[in-house]
Amino acid sequence: MEHSVWPSSAVHLIPVSTAKNGVSSKSRKRIMPDPVTEPPVTDPVYEALLYCNIPSVAERSMEGHAPHHFKLVSVHVFIRHGDRYPLYVIPKTKRPEIDCTLVANRKPYHPKLEAFISHMSKGSGASFESPLNSLPLYPNHPLCEMGELTQTGVVQHLQNGQLLRDIYLKKHKLLPNDWSADQLYLETTGKSRTLQSGLALLYGFLPDFDWKKIYFRHQPSALFCSGSCYCPVRNQYLEKEQRRQYLLRLKNSQLEKTYGEMAKIVDVPTKQLRAANPIDSMLCHLCHNVSFPCTRNGCVDMEHFKVIKTHQIEDERERREKKLYLGYSLLGAHPILNQTIGRMQRATEGRKEELFALYSAHDVTLSPVLSALGLSEARFPRFAARLIFELWQDREKPNEHSVRILYNGVDVTFHTSFCQDHHKRSPKPMCPFENLVRFVKRDMFVALGGSSTNYYDACHREGF
User: Fold this and answer.
1) Residue 370 to residue 387: CA distance in whole angstroms
2) What is the DSSP letter of 9?
3) Which InterPro entries is this protein grouped with (predicted)?
């Protein structure tokens, strides 16, 4: 995880709801809520369980839906890694006991899990871009290591892969039967959880998982900005956003009180407890149905969890209103969006390479992309979240191409800032590809204010 993205004291590596109205910890349910004026109260536990994304029945999804005269040309998938062990430990408590070995007949189960384990355990023989070749191909510790993918995380992505296979390969024949390595573009950060999530998705997706055709590129930055990472103005937006977070936290006396109580239970200074980001560990307890830790001074409990989670929901709501994060996101997401439309443009010219692109990433990768696209109502990226760009060609007018954008299977194309007015002006069922191109090449900079018309100038604008 890139340290510059969120400081460890910011509780932001976490799910946050995007119900339109977060609710402050001070509000109490009235006996008779007024349905007209009272915002719906966001339930922090419900939000947290959505974030866990516990694998259950296969979900309905809208991927691959298009009028019959449209042909699917290319697909670009951005995922967050699956369920992982926490990155932080609550001081002076026993770590949650979760087994990170893969066991085919243990829950959560997937029909391909056993074959996946046997395929991965033979080793790849594949050479990935360094340093990825030194990472394990699947999780395998009896007590999970910090940040390690769990069996749940593997199953979540086997399921994603299977779902995309049924739609894109079986139905739309995106890859030919004799597909080759250069028809895939695969990139991941240098964490075992992202590489393993990508492999699980591909194992579920590809008709024959052949190591010779699988080459992962390494991306050192969580923003996937490759050679364009230096952007001073982006960092200034981030500093202002972190200050906003800090000030909001200071105002929340109930949050302070809760941290104080928890710190007493585990017998450390409040400041040290907060720096240990306890919500990360508490989410793991919740997702895996393990009780919260206790000491001789008492137990961390669900009420503590609800206060911290509710504050996050409030923080997310204010974050959208104040728009500092949007500035950070427009600059942070530009390089990866620019690379994606470059790949799409080559596909519109009839090039057959890189028809399927997969970026295996983090919450701090997906979150800025969602924000930059104007998807302010999208929930904070859950474990194994997927964001997909589909490129389509109109068979009746072969020069016309369209895009669809889907988040966790929901079509959000007409919620994006570059296509939300499309319906008013056009009867076309999809968003014209040129809308996305114009957005990435020009309108993203216009949205920042100032007079910059390119990424370099926007990143180095004086007097911001």
Assistant:
1) 8
2) T
3) His_Pase_clade-2, His_PPase_superfam, Histidine_acid_phosphatase
For residue 10, being part of any structural domain is answered with no
- Return d(Cα 92, Cα 268) in angstroms, integer: 8
d(CA 367, CA 374): 11
Q: DSSP label at 44?
A: H
Tokens of 37: 């004026």
The Cα–Cα gap between 346 and 358 comes to 17
Task: Examine the domain organization and report whether 355 and 283 are in the same domain.
Answer: no
- CB-based contacts of 36: which residues, under 8 Å, 6+ apart? none
Q: What is the pLDDT of residues 236-272, one digit of tens each?
A: 999 999 999 999 999 999 999 999 999 999 999 999 9
Number of domains in the chain: 2
Provide the 10 A C-beta neighbour count for residue 94: 10
> What is the mean predicted confidence (pLDDT) over 434-446?
96
- Among residues 413, 380, 330, 368, which one has the least CA distance to residue 19? 380
Q: Are residues 285 and 139 in the same domain?
A: no
Tell me which residues are annotated as active site. 81, 363
| Amino acid at residue number 158 | L
CA distance 249 to 70: 49
Q: Which domain holds residue 141?
A: 53-229+324-460
Query: Which of 311, 312, 291 minimizes the C-alpha distance to 301?
Result: 291
